[in-house]
Amino acid sequence: MAAHQDEIFKAMADPNRRRILGELCRQSREAGELARMVGLAPNALSFHLRALKSADLVSVRREGRYLRYSLEADRLESWRRQIDQLFPLASSRAGSFAASHAIEPDESESSVEPQTNSDQLPTELL
């Protein structure tokens, strides 16, 4: 289990992979469409998709001559719950920070500057 968690952490560490996952959170996509949306060449997209598939974060199915990629939402949610268990204090503080600043859960890149209060997390950790 720990080795698989490490694989997920590695997959999530790359900003291109996070962008890919963000697009797949909205809906499943064909490889070419996904490459255009995240601004990657097809070979670069394939490289990142292999890492995400290896971490069980995406699945693929053939539709005619195209490959359609989908988010493995249950796997991502399971990983998020594991993070909450590993870092319970950070999870409660992040929730407290979001609630006190009226941040919506799906809001990306908040323009709210974090206050310097030591018991609040920087927005990039939310």
Structural class: mainly alpha
Q: Radius of gyration, rounded?
A: 16 Å
Tertiary shape? elongated
Share of residues in strands = 5-15%
CATH fold group of the largest domain: Arc Repressor Mutant, subunit A
Largest sheet: 3 strands, antiparallel
Total helix count? 6
End-to-end distance:
25 Å
CATH superfamily of the largest domain: Winged helix-like DNA-binding domain superfamily/Winged helix DNA-binding domain
Please write the CATH class name of the largest domain.
Mainly Alpha
Low-confidence segments: 105-126
CATH architecture of the largest domain: Orthogonal Bundle
Description:
By secondary structure, this protein is mainly α. Strands 1-3-2 form a 3-stranded antiparallel β-sheet. The two termini are 25 Å apart. The model is unreliable at 105-126 (pLDDT under 50). The radius of gyration is 16 Å and the shape is elongated. The protein has 6 helices and 3 strands; from the N terminus they run H-H-E-H-H-E-E-H-H. A hairpin with a 2-residue loop joins strand 2 and strand 3. Helix content is 57%, strand content 11%. It has 2 domains: 2-72, Arc Repressor Mutant, subunit A (Orthogonal Bundle), CATH 1.10.10; 87-125, no CATH class.
What topology does this entry show?
Elements: H1 2-13, H2 15-26, E1 29-30, H3 31-38, H4 42-54, E2 58-63, E3 66-71, H5 73-86, H6 88-100
Antiparallel strand pairs: 1-3, 2-3
Helix pairs in contact: 1-4, 5-6
